[in-house]
Amino acid sequence: MNRRVWRWLIPLSAIPVLALLAYGFRVNPREVPSPLVGRPAAAFTLTTFDGAPLSLEAQRGKVVVVNFWASWCYPACYEEAPVLERNWRRYRDRGVVVIGVDIQDTVEAAQKFIRDFDLTFPNVRDATGKVSVDYGVYGVPETFFVDRQGRIRAKHVGAVTDEVFRRHVDRLLGDTAG
Amino acid sequence: MRAGHAAAAALVLAAALLAAPPAWLPAQPPARPVSEQAVHDIAAQLRCVVCQNLSVADSPSEMANQMRAIVRERLQAGESPAEVVQYFVDRYGEWILLSPRRRGFNWLVWLGPVVAVAAGLAIVAVLLWRWTRRARREAASPAAPSVDATMSERIRREMEAEP
Fold first, then answer.
1. Which CATH number fits the domain that encloses residue B48?
2. Where do the domains of chain A lie?
3. Does the distance separating the beta carbons of A136 and B91 come in below 8 Å?
């Protein structure tokens, strides 16, 4: 090969590497696409902090918002707790259930959290971490929106806002009503 | 002797009951013995989901602890190591694996560095060969006298002229 080709070839060979780096540094390594969206939500039966058993199966026919949280998860869980409670009160009569799943936590701290935010939707405790793994949870808070057929339709990582809650729940309510 | 016979019969009956599990209990497969090494081998392949760049085997976190317990339980229930790994992949995606599987697009990750090192070595070899070409050519031909007679005479004269 002659000299002129080499002069161009060497700088050009750096372009794929630069492109790869440009892509790699823009991607957030903490944001992981869940393979569970579109699949049936894993069944679970856990005990609420009130001592009653609660199963996901029993909610079939309702839109279920499954929220994984922990009392040590500050500030995100503290930001979304009032949002979840507000929207639960707003939507509960329209066939929507919010289930809080407390993970990696102590019972006392979790109960204090529930009292402090005056949470009235059912909260259960995943003591063994099995439900967390079944839902591919890698941090708190994470929220799953389950449709009336029991299928996971969306996953939200980070604090839920009014906008996020309403957008997903309205879509799932509208989806199956017609 | 009667009492003796009855006692013997009772003993035999008790032994038979102890040896064979009663049929009315649901048959449960006995938990297989699972070594810590087997649990560790699987946990080492899994990413600790709440950590930065740590395996489930290496992390002291509660979540990793629970994941190790799940690995142990599934092995005890008779699952193969590959099935246990797949259980986590089904829920977290291949992201959970610390080393990407050797297939499809992932081959780029496995072979890329090897190809890059080979290409680098090839380029260095070519350049070294080029840079040393002149030296080799000069060594092959007899060295031309670098200083001719007139010049060495002049050098000699000037050296002697020095005080």
1. 1.10.8.640
2. 45-177
3. yes
